[in-house]
Amino acid sequence: MPEISQQLAASSLASRRVLLGVSGSIAAYKAAPLTRLLVKAGAEVQVILTEAAMAFVTPLTLGTLSKKPVLTGFLRDAAAGEWHNHVELGLWADALLIAPASANTIGQLANGLCPNLLCAVYLSARCPVFLAPAMDLDMFAHPAVTQNLARLRSFGNRVFDSPSGELASGLSGAGRMLEPEDIVAELEQFFRSAEG
Known about the structure:
The strands form three sheets. Strands 2-1-5-6-7 form a five-stranded parallel sheet, with helices on both faces. Strands 3-4 form a two-stranded antiparallel ribbon. Strands 8-9 form a two-stranded antiparallel sheet. The chain is an alpha/beta fold and 196 residues long. The protein has one domain: 3-Layer(aba) Sandwich (Rossmann fold), CATH 3.40.50.1950. β3 and β4 form a beta hairpin. α2 packs parallel to α3, α4 packs across α6 and α5 packs across α8. It is 42% helix and 18% strand. It is built from nine helices and nine strands. The longest helix is centred in the C-terminal third of the chain and has 16 residues.
């Protein structure tokens, strides 16, 4: 037990509040190990799933791993008029991590569109934003996606590199989501630098 306490104390993610946005990509299955690793590093994780993401990973899985109910839309209880306050969520977080960030979500964020809770939280967030793109290589190389990613970077967002490798389509090339261990390492490095 003392080893675990020492590891948490050493982690720059300890007690950090991370909003994890998961969008509709086959790489959404990686949100489960990513959530587990963030929690293991001591972060408090609130997951937001887009409707498209729920085709790939369930709220039950991510809620169990994060130990918090997963948010999937604006309304908590429509009959009672209860809703998830995107402004409060954006102010609560120390980091907004969108992994995977699909081409559709990247386009929405880059152009200020707000069709779902995740985009509304992004537009309200005052914390650092990190994106881990995930899509097929032709989509990733398309000029529209390239421009949207450049635009997001110009807003001050941090976009992780997309490593080459085998893709779900069977093709091989850039477009893979950065592995969960590497994402956690990047976040830890960011907060370590911020502390120093």
